[in-house]
Amino acid sequence: MTTPTGRRTGRPRAVTEQAILDAALWQLDAGGAAAVSIRGIAAQVGIAPNAVYTYYPSKAAVLRALVERFLGDVNHDRFVDREQPWRQRLEALALELRAHLVAHRGAVQLLLGGPMDGPNALTLRESLSEALADGGLAPDDAARASYVLLVYIFGAIALEVAELDQRRIPPTEHDRVSTRRAVLDTLPAEAYPRTTETAGTISKDFTTEQFLWGLTRILNGLQA
Amino acid sequence: MTTPTGRRTGRPRAVTEQAILDAALWQLDAGGAAAVSIRGIAAQVGIAPNAVYTYYPSKAAVLRALVERFLGDVNHDRFVDREQPWRQRLEALALELRAHLVAHRGAVQLLLGGPMDGPNALTLRESLSEALADGGLAPDDAARASYVLLVYIFGAIALEVAELDQRRIPPTEHDRVSTRRAVLDTLPAEAYPRTTETAGTISKDFTTEQFLWGLTRILNGLQA
DNA sequence: TCCATAATATGGACGGCGTACAGAAAGATG
DNA sequence: CATCTTTCTGTACGCCGTCCATATTATGGA
What we know:
The structure is a homodimer.
Chain A: H1 17-31, H2 38-45, H3 59-72, H4 86-103, H5 107-111, H6 119-134, H7 139-162, H8 173-184, H9 193-197, H10 199-202, H11 208-223
Chain A binds a DNA duplex through loops.
């Protein structure tokens, strides 16, 4: 697949597997997960649609490879620096994942569209478990806790992205809060007393601050 | 839309909006979110495909209505019984949501495919906030905590469903654990020491027991 | 009773999708 | 220069969401 060896005869390839993934990512960012199409990718790299099948056996395989590359672009950064406090490492990792997923919104649907069992997904979990073990958790507890964290991180981004029209450029965090606040203020207080009472807080669901608020509480619960 | 009044003239409708949603849900359960099609729904209820547009303006609207009805089928059960201890109510609600989502796997992608801002979604959050307030949280903390719980619940199901081939009938929990265990046992211990060491635990990621383990820890962290 | 009206149904079509199959192109090897 | 191998292209099939024009079938008024 990625072996540099082999292939000593035959017509040379017009593009590379990476170019195909580049085009897929471009389409993903431009129009969301639904806008990624074999035909669009082919047009962008300049080959016939069915020529894509020389590189990947199906559209699902393209998306799988894209997910793997995507996860690979996140790992191996600061949070493997075991000199740092473990909570700081975990927060850095969570924030970095979040930033990557927000930068390429639409990727979440792909991530959640199939099993995350590739090497980079495993490495990600390995990193999480390592930090949690450094926090004093026994191996099995660290394993369970790392899954809870994965659920929280991907779930938070999934809910956040679900609110966005992926065909448009995303509004600023401030604008999103304002829009949500305006909608919440139109709700009848009789039907949703607590929601309307805390509308100011609820409108900030998708902010980085709320993300960290939850992450901190969850880490507290996991440590005790 | 659902008003029983009106419509005193014109050709009578061949089916009902509910029948369309029934058919959509049937297709969802049979083949996953990708298998839900206007043409399939129309064939099932016995009308021409474009006749569906008399009831809903687009496929997206059908799915939106299906999501709303789906959330409505979950609410209003045991966890509004404020005589029960708040943690017990929350666990019951989380488990009920989980059971519903697992019974109709494929619905998760729909839920996460658009904003959950309908009446039933708001009511769900209202119930969560109420239970958390009964647990002693201040209103704004309860609002934030309820969002954390939503993230955990939907995230857990999303990750769980992502592992399943939605076109097949789901294997038992026991079989899924065994399958995952077998895969994990093939991993090189050098590359993933913690993953292989805790393979027995990791293979149980998708069990009800792990779901409750995480829920308990999260509630602990939210209460402190 | 007959007709205008209004709501709903259908037939057919358009453009787009993933992808299968047959055959043409293009470089390496003898 | 002929052959072999790999890749690319042309074409086609079946499915999709949705639009337009038209037919169907009830009601309300003359």
